[in-house]
Amino acid sequence: MDERCRRPADDAPGMHRSAVLLALLVGVALIDCASGSSFAESALQLRDSADCKDLHDGDICSMNGARVCRNRTCVSACEARGMRECKCDLEEDNYCYLCCGSDRDACQPAHAHNILRPNGERWERDACARCRQIGHDLDGLPCDDKDAGRLCLQGKCTNSICHDKQQGAVCDRKMEKICVDNECRNPCASYGEHLMVCECPMIDPDTGFASDDRCQLCCFDFNVNPSLRRCQNAYRRYGIVNLQQRPVWRVGLECAGGKTCNRYGACAASCVVAHPLWLSVATVATVVLMVAR
């Protein structure tokens, strides 16, 4: 038989041995990978178990992570109560507190669900606790050494953009929210999600005179047909108030007659400061008149 025809057959055992060797090498690699993955999982389990090895159920195993022991495993304080960690709606709440929620329960600070530390205290940052407890002494001062932009305002450690704005000032790009109680929000939504912030007209369409509602928060119902939609006083129509149970003022809005809404919720003329040159001219004119007499 031709040598060229016999070589593949003769080399078959060698090829077979190479294939077997390659398979063994691949198998070893796969075993190593599997062992490594299993070891990583075991290490994680051992680490979690070690955190609670000498602790009882409910004991804190991670203060910064808001985690407690359950069945010798370190889990979230939310999970220990059958809930999950989530993001609160208010920035201050999300920054200061552990937030928990579930399919049946809204996402709120943990203490709103009666989820507390073993000593009965809230799951709360120390900076926020100081603002809440002695806020009257720290009001307007920085509350977090690591974030100079956060100030103690009305008992909250906040970085609200409203801390240097007047009440009722627009504070978002969509111009749908205003500053109320140092928070940037839509106060009309406190009555119903279908209400939006608006500006009552300068002139009352019913009387033809300057509107008394211009300097107060006004809302409109976007569910109503646009042709029938009307901006109405939020306090008289919906009973919407601020934390002091007072109407929300729109300080700085322009009123009819060149006036401006002041911090008392009324249209007032702007104070005009006399220029020194005007005073000099007036003085000269007075002297000339006196001499002429």
Description:
- The chain is α+β, with helices and mostly antiparallel strands and 293 residues long.
- It is 31% helix and 17% strand.
- It has 3 domains: 60-124, no CATH class; 126-159, no CATH class; 169-293, no CATH class.
- The protein contains 5 helices and 16 strands.
- A hairpin with a 2-residue loop joins β8 and β9.
- It starts with a helix and ends with a helix.
Quick recap of the structure?
The chain has 293 residues and is an alpha+beta fold. The protein contains five helices and 16 strands. It is elongated.
What structural keywords apply?
single chain, alpha+beta, 3 domains, three-stranded antiparallel β-sheet, 5 helices, 31% helix, elongated, disordered N terminus
Strand order of the largest sheet: 1-2-3
| Structural domain tally | 3
Percent in helix = 25-40%
N→C terminal distance: 148 Å
Number of helices: 5
How much strand content do the residues show? 15-25%
Q: H/E series, N to C?
A: HEEEEHEEHEEEEEEEEHEEH
Backbone CA Rg: 35 Å
List low-pLDDT spans. 1-50, 272-279
What composes the largest sheet?
3 strands, antiparallel
User: What is the averaged pLDDT score?
Assistant: 77
Q: Structural class given helices, strands, pairing?
A: alpha+beta
Shape: elongated
How many strand elements? 16
Signal peptide: 1-36
Transmembrane segments: 272-292
Keywords: Membrane, Signal, Transmembrane, Transmembrane helix
